[in-house]
Design brief:
Helices cover 27% and strands 30% of the residues. The protein is an alpha+beta fold. Helix 4 (137-151) runs antiparallel to helix 5. Mean pLDDT is 92; it is low at 282-290.
Length: 290
């Protein structure tokens, strides 16, 4: 990391993204505010996204601040995600969140590195890649269909992504890979023209960072270089926009690919989610041991 020797990658990320409140970029309908040490990003639509984090810790009374968020979003009837990192304070944050009714989701690796390490183009075998416009009904429907095939559910995230692209095209690019030939593997089949991977890149203007998201790949389209090709496409787009560093919250499937390319796992992030319900534990209830 020759250009960034004075600070570690994690220090750059923490200062430019987390402490600066840049986990999400401002856009219509999205509220970004603080409640004491808690940074909040939430949709005015209570059926949609709400996320909080505590990049500077929770001080001397963590349960007070946790309870306030539970109460606030329960009153709105809004599901809440508390995004945690393994270096957050207090050290027992996950235990405290569980005591307040949060469910811990699967761990993801926080991976950071230089955009330049990802630029080398890769051939996607049997698929064509393209940039998606906000008005492209077929592409967004294809992404939604893909998520239903892979994850067994169809949710509202694809529509939210489309709305974000329409409202804030300067902070987001969306790509799809479509099958250019029939694909079969493990009893799965993808037809010509079907979306077999969808991925997007978000930009944080005024920082060094872009971030890579999505990447869900059709079971019939794996081991063809498609995910890797979309990494390169997004990196090239980000490089042309002047971004030098990249962040990925990645699954165990993606981690080996990204580390082989030169990116570095610097932390673990665990989403803690809570459905809208009456607030938290009895005051003074101790957090359970893990």
């Amino acid at each position: 990391m020759a250009g960034f020797a004075s600070m570690t990658l994690l220090e750059h990320f923490h200062a430019q993204i987390r402490l600066a409140g840049r986990e999400d970029e401002p856009r219509p309908g999205l509220v970004q505010d603080s409640d004491g040490p808690v940074r909040r990003t939430w949709s005015q639509d209570p059926t949609a996204f709400a996320m909080v984090e505590c990049p500077a810790g929770l001080g001397e009374d963590p349960d007070h601040w946790i309870s306030r968020q539970v109460d606030f979003f329960a009153e709105r009837g809004q599901e809440l995600e508390w995004k945690t990192y393994d270096y957050d304070e207090p050290a027992d944050l996950l235990d405290r969140l569980r005591a307040h009714g949060f469910t811990l989701e699967d761990d993801e690796a926080l991976v950071l590195g230089e955009v330049a390490d990802l630029l080398h183009p890769v051939m996607a075998k049997g698929a064509s890649l393209r940039l998606v416009e906000a008005g492209d009904d077929a592409a967004f429907a294809g992404i939604a269909d893909l998520h239903e095939i892979v994850w067994g559910r169809r949710d509202g995230h694809t529509q939210q992504l489309r709305d974000e692209l329409r409202r804030s095209p300067e902070t987001l690019d969306v790509f799809v890979a479509e099958a250019s030939e029939p694909m079969e593997a493990g009893g799965h089949r993808a037809e010509v023209g079907q979306v077999v991977c969808g991925a997007w890149v978000r930009y944080s203007p005024g920082t060094d960072f872009c971030s890579l998201w999505g990447g869900t790949t059709h079971p019939a389209a794996r081991r063809r270089g498609i995910y890797r090709a979309l990494v390169a496409e997004r990196a090239q787009r980000a490089s042309r926009r002047g971004f030098r560093l990249v962040r990925v919250d990645c699954s165990p499937d993606s981690l080996p690919i990204l580390t082989r390319l030169g990116l570095e796992r610097v932390a673990t992030t665990v989403p803690a989610t809570r459905a809208p319900a009456p607030a938290g534990p009895t005051p003074g209830q101790p957090a359970p041991t893990r």
